[in-house]
Amino acid sequence: MLYFLQKNDSNLLRTLMTNHALSGAQVILDCLKREGVDTIFGYPGGSAIPLFDALLDSNIKMVLSRHEQGATHMADGYARATGKVGVVLVTSGPGATNTFTGIYTALMDSSPIVVLAAQTTTPNLGKDAFQECDTSGMTFAAVKHSFLVKNPNDLPRIVKEAFHIARSGRPGPVLIDLPKDVTAGNCTASFSDEIDLPGYKIPTYADPAAVEKAAALLKKATKPLLLVGHGAIISNASRQVKELAEKLNAPVVETLLGLGAFPETHPLSLGMLGMHGTAYAHKAVLECDLIMSIGSRWDDRIVGKIEEFCKGATIIHVDIDPAEEGKILQPDAFLCGDAKLVLEQLLPLVSRLDTDDWVKTCQTYKKRYPLTYPKQGGLRMQHIISTVYELTKGKAIVTTDVGQHQMWVAQFFKADYPRQFISSGGAGTMGFGFPSAIGAAIGISSELKWPICCFAGDGGFQMTEFELSTAAIHKLPIKIFVMDNKYLGMVRQWQDMFYGKRYSSVSMEGNPDFVKLAEAYDIKAFRIKRSADAERVIQKALDYNEGPVLIHCECEEEDNVFPMIPAGAPLTAMMTEPPKGQLEKPTGST
Amino acid sequence: MATFDRNTSAHCLSLLVANRPGVLVRIALVFSRRGYNLDSLVVSPTLNPDFSRMNIVAHGNPEILVQIIKQLEKLVDVIQAKDHTGSNTVEKELALIKVRCKPEQRTEILQLCDHFKAVTIDMTDTSMIIQITGNTDKIDAMKHLLDKFEVVEYIRTGKVIMLRGEDIT
Fold first, then answer.
1. Under a CB-based contact definition with an 8 Å cutoff, are residues A214 and A180 in contact?
2. Residue B59 above 60 pLDDT?
3. How far apart are CA A157 and CA A166, in angstroms?
């Protein structure tokens, strides 16, 4: 017996001390603790009661959301801000289906979350029992992996494997379907650190031959460009990216989710690439003779028309996911591995290139085509964002919702630090911004004293606004900027530019008074109507430290985001200002 | 069945998969997401009871298929996915063909069976079931010749493949 106790097997220890077996639910919570989980986001229900009951005796913090979608985005925001696995706990049926948008959002952006979805009892599976739903079946296409647990004794292994899969390699969401008789039943299996996943491979270092090839290609380049994506942040490769850029003397562009991987205030940074990226980033992409992607997947909003993208330029692609090789573009060298490790392999093989003229050219573009916005007229979202950036000196965690304000935050909040900018990229999930800010605030609150600034449009905010309760209860230091233009601005912009200004279902007529809404939740709120008031009010909101604060920004109603490249068009089709007259409908889907 | 594009070709894939619930659905989803239909599918146990072998025949654009194979390999429960098209393999299918025939037609049918090394596995006054094994073309040819009689039912397994020599498929 002493032998087992020395192995620090708390499960067995408790079994021996209490002389009865632990329930599946207790074992799951013990497993979570072993995985380093300190917080769970969730919502209870019938099938989940054994788990919620066990939670009362556990020191894991339970954050009760107001909707399961909110809980899932919170776990996602927590994961993106901390790099740890976010955990969601929901009941069966509608509880589980409400998480799907969040699961898909996490999959598209490679965010590590584990969703514990309760289920009806195993004998009831497939019999249309109350709140039964084939959760595993319905989520196959939206998860990195999933498990349906049939036997409580499988729990220690499955929870271990779920966390391992969620956080390693290319991270992603993992779902565990937990029938009630499994969580309520006895588990006598002891914890094991063994993982039985013979088909699961985690790339680490790249093939040395590919690294040498990449080094040789870089040596020949005269106009090299680094494209840095989310993968660089996930693998904590920021230092290596900076080292590579400086060693080569190569300019850097970033994807939306790559923002912060390389300091945007660095002289070599050209900001964001993509549909609404900077003009100077696109100029550089059009002229470069080599582009090296580090942890980006050539998203359609980056490359536009594939055949025209970097035509004639050498392509080097660093990605941890072997299935990304050649998915969009055929690279000249594919370095499959963890960005940080691959760059460490590459760094000793490269030296400074003769790129002074190239860097100078890019910096000239930066001066010649700066990001601007009209200073006249009503309150501009760009002005709000710039003011927040200046007043916080860039030291804030920023989360966004989806749409025009998202693009403006990406343009005007110069992210210098990895994990500082949190946004739904691949999925473009409206309703993500606010709950992800709650998750981020809970994840980092004890370590970092930065404010959490959430920017959300009036449309997206209303999709998850009920989480105001969650933010209020936990007194989270979130500054919620509701960027209200009374429109679904991005869709309206497309209808304006490509559909003859035929506005269809984009008016947000019926919006609440967001200040009153916040006050109904006992949340401090401010309103900004004029640009002249922005600095004073934002400073007050930033200084407020007794919990969340909402700032209702009543913005210019029909402002459009520029630069813009129509979907599916080549990068040369970039517009830096509103076009004269009607444009062709875009060929790309979105 | 797939609607074949002129630029597509048949590919024969062999997958080694973990015997876990849902593995077949996950694999099928990778194909269906790219608009691929499977021509045939065989699932069989292997020497190790923890794993199964799947042989899949699918038609389609070769470049997309390369992508599909990578995405199959990415699945946690797939240990290995390989395209064996053009490699040195033995390939076999089996078909059962039920023919309605009068006693005086039997001799000709049996001659056909003899030629194709097919066997009759059921015979009545008015019908017989023929079992034939071989590669796709051979079975197609036999079926074609039997069409002049009255074929009332026809079923075919998917293709099973194995690398020649000592190499493991």
1. no
2. yes
3. 14
Least CB-CB distance to A199: which of B25, B70, B76?
B76
Give catalytic status of residue A180 as yes or no.
yes
Domain boundaries, chain B: 9-83, 89-162
pLDDT at B2: 41
Q: Do B73 and A323 touch (CB under 8 A)?
A: yes
SS3 content of chain B, % helix, strand, coil (to 5): 30, 40, 30
The residue-averaged pLDDT of A530-545 equals 97
Of A200, A322, A327, the CB nearest to B76: A200
Which CATH fold topology does A2-187 show?
Rossmann fold (3.40.50)
Check CB contact of B64 with chain A, cutoff 8 Å: no
* Chain A residue closest in CA terms to B32: A141
**A131 is known as an active-site residue:** yes
- Tell me whether residue A514 is one of the annotated catalytic residues: no
Q: What is the mean pLDDT of residues A186-208?
A: 93
pLDDT of residue A466: 97
A259-305 tens-digit pLDDT: 999 999 999 999 999 999 999 999 999 999 999 999 999 999 999 99
Token pair for B60: 């389609």
Question: Is A404 a known active-site residue?
Answer: no
Degrees (nearest 5) of the Cα angle A399, A404, A407?
60
At B3, is the pLDDT very low, low, confident or very high (cuts 50, 70, 90)? very low
Closest partner CB to B18 (pick from A144, A198, A326): A198
Residue range A198-213: mean pLDDT, rounded = 97
Residues of A in contact with B33 (CB under 8 A): 141
Dihedral sign for Cα A147, A153, A158, A163, please: positive
Neighbours of A519 (CB within 10 A): 13
The pLDDT value recorded for residue A240 is 98
Predicted confidence (pLDDT) at residue A544 exceeds the cutoff of 80: yes
Query: Is residue A175 helix, strand or coil?
Result: strand
Residues 6+ positions from A394 with CB-CB distance below 8 Å:
A265, A413, A414, A415, A416
CB of A141 within 8 Å of a chain B CB? The answer is yes
Considering chain A, tell me which residue range(s) the CATH 3.40.50.970 domain(s) occupy: 2-187, 381-558
Nearest residue of chain A to residue B64 (CA atoms): A327
Start-end of CATH 3.40.50.1220 domains in chain A: 208-368
- Cβ separation B74–A322 shorter than 8 A: yes
Q: Is the pLDDT of residue B53 over 60?
A: yes
Count other Cβ atoms within 10 Å, centred on residue B136.
Answer: 18
Question: In the predicted model, what is the mean pLDDT of chain B?
Answer: 92
> Which residues from chain B sit within 8 angstroms of residue A165, using beta carbons?
76
Question: Residue A247 in contact with residue A378, Cβ under 8 Å?
Answer: no
pLDDT above 70: percentage of residues in chain A: 96
Q: Does B73 touch chain A (CB under 8 A)?
A: yes
Half-sphere CA count of A26, side-chain side, radius 13 A: 17
Tokens for A533? 């008031």
CA distance B101 to chain A (A): 46
Q: Are A457 and A528 in contact (CB under 8 A)?
A: no
Looking at the domain that runs over B9-83, which CATH code has it been given? 3.30.70.260
Question: What's the ipTM?
Answer: 0.91
**How much is the pLDDT for B6?**
47
Of the partner residues A137, A199, A326, the one whose CB lies closest to the CB of residue B18: A199
CATH fold match for the domains B9-83 and B89-162: yes
Looking at beta carbons, which residues of chain A come within 8 Å of B62? none
User: Does residue A357 sit in helix, strand or coil?
Assistant: helix
What is the homologous superfamily of the domain A381-558 according to CATH?
Thiamin diphosphate (ThDP)-binding fold, Pyr/PP domains (3.40.50.970)
Q: Which fold has domain A208-368?
A: Rossmann fold (3.40.50)
pLDDT of residue A5: 43
Q: Which CATH superfamily is domain B89-162 in?
A: ACT-like. Chain A, domain 2 (3.30.70.1150)
